[in-house]
User: Fold this.
Amino acid sequence: MNVRVVILAALAAVLGAAAAAGAETIAITGATVYPVSGPKIPNGTVVIRDGRIIAVGANVAIPAGARRIDARGKIVTPGFINAQTQLGLVEVGGERSTRNSSGRGLVNADFRPWEGFFSGSAYIASAREDGVTTVGIFPTGGLVAGQAAAMDLADGTAAEMVRKAPVGVVATIQTGPRFTSDVDENTAGDANTANGGELSAPPASRADALAALRELLADARFYATRHDKYDAGALRGLIASARALDALLPVVQGREPLIVEANRVDDIDAMVRFARAERIRLVIAGGAEAWKIAPRIAAAHVAVLTGAMNNIPETFDRLNQRQENAAILRRAGVEVALVGNEGGGADEETFNVRNVKYEAGNAVAYGMSHDDALRAVTLAPATILGIADRVGSLAPGKDANVVVWSGDPFEFSTSVEHVFVRGREYRDRSRQDQLIERYRKLPRTNN
Assistant:
């Protein structure tokens, strides 16, 4: 091949990569800027270049040639993070071929849902145009559902959207939807074959589930130092497959949290005690009754993923559910991330991921400070998911997931005016936008 052609091709590749990373320099000026990691900045400026934030402050020099966005009277925040969703994992709830949120068995610690993520989901645009730039995707079903991941809502393939994977292993000790899910479509024998171990039927009770988790972690530690004997067939039977036990090693070694779905106060307390005894990191998902032992949860350094919209108990696990839950937890010192708190792959986790801003607004209405609510949809979930070094706050060097709002982001009437993911601005036309345009002017009838 001609040397000149090779050089030009290489140059085109470099320029293409730079463009994809958001090589344009952008200065958002005159806004009230909420860095989250520090106090708000009146009349502030945020400068973005090459996909990253290069400056944040009140007296920032604007680079020559930068595209300016006049944001006087507007508010600028980090992109919102909804930490517990099934976005991209379920597209049509009633159609099995579009559901990719669960594995085959009861212990699926090695299940990696991001490998089945649908990058063309119709719900990505609606989430992004309402200020959500990153989501956590959670598997469902079984005792151990699988591994969670953090995904940026940027254009690209599923692999290119991954922010971090895995971010933890998801489990449950409560009965109900999290145990059943798509596992119901498999027989006990299939589950046993998938696990390659002894756990062939769902635990009979919460205590049984906790015992199974205890045995799982013990077997993971046991297996970790005996790979050669396992491969030689000289090891005793284990509760789960080698793949599943391998996937649990980051949990038993303290590198990743065990994320446990639990709502009843006794279940939450049992898991706090379990985590202390097992010396593992714990995150509680759901946490409907967590407020009852908020100081204990804070003392154990356990984070909670919960919502603020519901106060009507849907199950016996949530008899003491209240909308002040998030505020009480935060006042006690718990790291709280606000999510849709329906649970079980419900609408808030799948189709209305964007509604996390209403969870935050409701949390403020029920006693959480505005600053804490903003943290609960930005820096707190980033911290829990292990991505706070790159996103979740506005600071030089961080990736440019940035949103310009017309007003207070928690007010119902506020809209997103500009949204950047990895430094690229998105101007989405969601399915809802298309429907509005289609039916804005109805055709005349003769009736």
